[in-house]
Please model this.
Amino acid sequence: MSDNAESPTETQKDEPPTPQQPTEDSGTADEKKKIDVLLKAVGDTPIMKTKKWSVEKGRTVQSLSQFISRFLKMEANEQLFIYVNQSFSPSPDQEVGVLFECFGSDGKLVLHYCKSQAWG
Amino acid sequence: MSSCFLDEETFCQCCQLFLQHSHSLCDGWSWEQVKGSEEGYLRKTALGTGRTRCNQDQQGTSSDQHQERTFSLSFHNDDDDEDDGAVCCIQEENSSSSVVQYEYHILYSCSYQTPVLYFRASTLEGRSLCLEEVWDSVHPNYRQRLQHRPWDTITQQEHPLLGQSFFVLHPCRTEEFMKPVLKAALEEHRQVNYIVTWLSVVGPVVGLDVPLSYCTQVPEPPHTPSSSPQPPSSSPQPPSSSPQPPSSSPQPPSSSPQPPSSSPQPPSSSPQPPSSSPQPPALGTKPG
Model:
């Protein structure tokens, strides 16, 4: 896994391609149909240096969640929670493209993330 | 902060609003009232998938199973009881994905002042899943965390209203994952439907799907008149009788913003603090 926040496009060795390409400029939809995702940390969850990501529409929330977890080097006892509109949590099987269509604004989907030791 | 908790009245209101949308979707939820009591709960049955032990050829499998998949991580390191290590490993050879009948109940917990998800799971032949099978069936997104401390996550308990054995998703840290949402709602002078938010987090863990439309269509419960409910940024009013009046809130205006909650976390075994007054409408209103 790449540790370099600036170039997370390196192919990950141990996992399928993860959301990559930090887009400092607005991501244009290439033939793979990507959407822009802006990740915002909640509470005292570590902030990702690269916040804006270009993600394929078909990517699931779970895949994104795994990516963030690894990026943040989370412990086994921690769980990452992702929120849309700061009002609900999308199902892990949900595709980010669908979320973007429903909840995207200004050409991007804003997702808040929080790590916690929930559940019990 | 106390606004991360839910009083029972608001729980009921949230449930009713949730239910209205469920009816419009034919999503299968129903409200079950306990006879002779004010208490009730939401209930739904659904088919899902789970990992169950194969019973056809091998009966009563020994739990000393060969294959430990790599993701049955920390059992041995973590828990005191070694037995759990053996029992809880994913048994590749003898378990498989199969159709499971789930029955979900959403109850209100007075001790935790939060909703709690109870559920049962059984094979189509009617055999109840055992605890290990339920753990194995947890959505992969949560599996690592569950395997770290399974006993803190899902266990079996007696259903408080029915007295039968159910699986429970532990509610102790509900506040932790509700807080970001409630805090944001408070800051933005909007409200959320606690049940919708909460279920969107806990449901997928145990195979319960919450369609996205709940998150946009279900209104918040009516609120104290002291703050006129702002048009919520993301939930348009549903066509069905929307109880989102500007001022006809049934709740007594407990106008103090946050009572200094000297007892922030209701301890797990103590009786609830009187919920009729001190708790503000637990959903992020900021008067004025």
Remarks:
- Strands of chain A lie at 20-22, 34-41, 52-56, 79-84, 108-116.
- The first strand of chain A starts at residue 20 and ends at 22.
